[in-house]
Amino acid sequence: MRILARSTLTRFVESLTGKKDQGAVQSALDAWFHEVAKAQWTNAADVKESYASASILDAERVVFNIKGNDYRLIVAVDYQRKIVFIKWLGTHAVYDKIDARKVQYGN
């Protein structure tokens, strides 16, 4: 899968500078990135096979738990074109306050 855009993940990790879990979040996001980049998903069932804890919101939106569910990563997946679009990344507490089906990065 092609992931757009890794810089979003990098900026998020940089925003955690000085926080005790910055290294753990970076490691978790790096692992997620490399695993997804190698994936060959054709549908949501393939995502669930790779990530049993992922939440499938609709035909394209998926939520991944990052660092033991302390953080949430929302993506849109275009299975036909093999592209994963990062839509939002933040703490679980903030995730609970947003509409995961509509949020866009920067909102």
Give a description of the structure.
This protein has helices spanning 6-15, 22-38, 44-50, 92-95; strands spanning 2-4, 55-56, 61-66, 71-78, 83-91. It has 107 residues and is α+β, with helices and mostly antiparallel strands. Strands 1-5-4-3-2 form a 5-stranded mixed sheet. The protein is globular. The two termini are 25 Å apart.
Strands in their spatial order, largest beta sheet: 1-5-4-3-2
Count of helical stretches: 4
DSSP strand count: 5
Question: What class do helices, strands and sheet pairing give?
Answer: alpha+beta
Task: Compute the average pLDDT.
Answer: 93
Order of helices and strands: EHHHEEEEH
Shape: globular
Q: Rounded to an integer, what's the Rg over CA atoms?
A: 13 Å
Strand content: 25-35%
Span between termini: 25 Å
How does the major sheet shape up?
5 strands, mixed
Write the topology of this structure.
Blueprint: E1 2-4, H1 6-15, H2 22-38, H3 44-50, E2 55-56, E3 61-66, E4 71-78, E5 83-91, H4 92-95
Parallel strand pairs: 1-5
Antiparallel strand pairs: 2-3, 3-4, 4-5
List its traits:
single chain, 107 residues, alpha+beta, 5-stranded mixed beta sheet, 4 helices
Gist of the model:
The protein has 107 residues and is of the alpha+beta class. It has four helices and five strands; from the N terminus they run βαααββββα.
